[in-house]
Design a protein that fits this description.
The protein is an all-alpha fold and 94 residues long. It contains three helices and no strands. Helix 1 runs antiparallel to helix 2.
């Protein structure tokens, strides 16, 4: 399997979008802080004059792993939220 060059413009768009979404995320929510650190590290790699493909790939893997962890946390939060909604509905006789 050959590594194709990473499209740095697309990676930059991804980083921008993640930073916008992370700005809305509540602080301390699961692994959100770790994801923020990974995104900042990737932005740092991209900000060099000539980003090295291996470093960009490594940064993308770090962001992906953190996203998977955050996804698991958000899934757990969704279950907790659903439980609260169910309890409130029961309390209200709904």
């Amino acid at each position: 399997m050959t590594n194709q060059p990473v499209d740095l413009e697309e990676v930059q768009k991804l980083v921008d979008a993640l930073e916008r979404d992370l700005a809305k995320a509540r602080a301390g929510a699961g692994n959100v802080e770790e994801l923020r650190k990974e995104v900042e590290a990737l932005r740092s790699v991209l900000s060099t004059d000539e980003p090295h493909q291996d470093q960009v790939r490594e940064g993308l893997h770090g962001v992906k792993a953190s996203l998977e962890q955050v996804g698991e946390t958000l899934y757990d939060d969704a279950i907790t939220l659903s439980d609260y909604i169910k309890r409130i509905g029961w309390m209200l006789g709904l």
